[in-house]
Structure formats: structure tokens, C-alpha cells
């Protein structure tokens, strides 16, 4: 059954140290979401790729929904311009809220937290606990190693071949959105 996509959750880095190419892609994704009238659900930070996506959405007058765990409030990194800022007790509640509020997931490059969030959604898809689509934006081949890991899991029979059909790997924001809106 096709779902209507009104809200997309974006998982991505909060690191300020990443290269401009990654920041530019995050900003582009945000702008595309805003132009299409798609609400952003994300981790609520003003820094790193998170901040770039949120600012991009706002540049195009879109809606930003930040979901921030309580302990991050003390770090003064919240995106105070968010249209809605939900403060959760912890990371687990944060992920649950992000899932509940989203129709699809896009994964930009990121660190351990980004990978953990994406793997939870992939695991839920594998277990048929969700059918919400999952798309990785593989900026400059960032996720090539992850793709190789998935292929090895299948080759060594740690995962079934259908795992490769439970996500999409694309090069840029436009391709991610084209995939989501043409396949779901």
C-alpha cells in the first residue's frame, strides 16, 4: 500500500568539522524539502549537517520539527528557530518520536549515532515492523564501505539477499526525493 509522504526524518552528523561538500549537500536537501512542502523531522541541533538541513528547509519556508534529548539542552546546540522542538527524556524516546512523526527516512553522512539510527530503521524494515522507506545519500562514496558490509553479510549468509532491497542508496538529494516520490 502506497503511503503519502508529508514528513521526512533526516539522520545526519552534528559534527562541525566535516567538509563543506557534506554541508552543502545537507543544505541542498533541506532546501528541496522546503520547496516541496515536506516537513523535516530531525535531531534538533543547530550544528553540523543537522543545522544545515534545518536552515535549508527554513530558507524555503518549510517546517522544521526538532527532537532533542533533555541532556543536549545543557550543551546549547538546539536549533532555537525550529517550528516545533520536542524534548525527550533520552535517546531511545527521541528515536521513537522521530519514527512516529515521519513517513520516510533519509540518511546523510554521519557518525556512530547516525549509523545507529539508520540501522534501527533497517532492522525494523527487515522484521516488517515498518514499511517506511529508507534512503542513504552516498555523498562522495561515504557509504561505499557500508554497502560492501551489507554485501558481505549476504555473501556469508548472515543476512538474506532481500536485505539489499530494503533501502535505496543514491548520489544526491534530488535522487533521494525522486526515489521516495516515485516508488511510494
Question: What do the pLDDT scores average to?
Answer: 94
How far apart the termini lie comes to: 8 Å
Domain count, please report it.
Answer: 1
State the order of secondary-structure elements, H for helix, E for strand.
Answer: EHEHEHEHEHEHEH
Shape: globular
- How large is the radius of gyration? 16 Å
Summarize this structure as a short list of keywords or feature phrases.
184 residues, alpha/beta, Rossmann fold, 7-stranded parallel β-sheet, 7 helices, globular
Task: Please explain how this structure is put together.
With 184 residues, the protein is an alpha/beta fold. 43% of the residues lie in helices and 17% in strands. The chain contains seven helices and seven strands. The radius of gyration is 16 Å and the shape is globular. The mean pLDDT is 94.
Short recap of the structure:
By secondary structure, the protein is an alpha/beta fold. Helix content is 43%, strand content 17%. The protein has a single domain, classed as 3-Layer(aba) Sandwich (Rossmann fold), CATH 3.40.50.450.
Strand-helix topology:
Layout: E1 7-11, H1 20-35, E2 39-42, H2 48-59, E3 64-69, H3 70-73, E4 84-88, H4 91-100, E5 104-107, H5 112-126, E6 134-137, H6 144-155, E7 168-170, H7 173-183
Parallel strand pairs: 1-2, 1-5, 2-3, 3-4, 5-6, 6-7
